[in-house]
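Sequence in, structure out. Go.
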Amino acid sequence: MIKTITIAFMLAAASAIAADEPKTFTDEERSVAEFWQQMGPTLREEGVETYAMRYHEDFTGWDIAGSGGMATKDNAVQYFSKFHEDGHRITCTHVEPVTIDIKAGRAVARLIYEQTNSYTDGRVETNAWRMVGVFERYGDTWQVLGTNMVNITPMQENDSDTPDASSRTLVCSGD
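Output:
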């Protein structure tokens, strides 16, 4: 019994130490994070057709616009196509990988994702999300198969009535 408790304690201590060490990622794992980071720039620089190819045909994702509904590939592409056609732009994206596991051509990635949008009326808005994404190998790149995102945008000075907002600093802030 004491041996079991000692082993459990040692494993817990090792996990706590490992959690504090920065994770290193292989080139293949980093390629998943880089693929997601390039979603906005692809739409902005290469257009809707190339952007749409980044989604797997079977894509499903929680609607990040806030309705709580599920989105399909067509929904996602249509939403961002309209955004782009209306003259708005994704001006900054930043991804911090947390964990990325790749097996048999599929990747499951936990990421912190930031995006800054510039609107035609002059507004600039930056948001951050905790994200889980499933990606499938597509030739020498990836396609996004599914996503689930939770907004963690830091509290702004004028949002003092939101006590549970994250205290993280935005990389894209001011872009």
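Check: The chain has one domain: 26-159. The CA atoms of residues 62 and 148 lie 5 Å apart.
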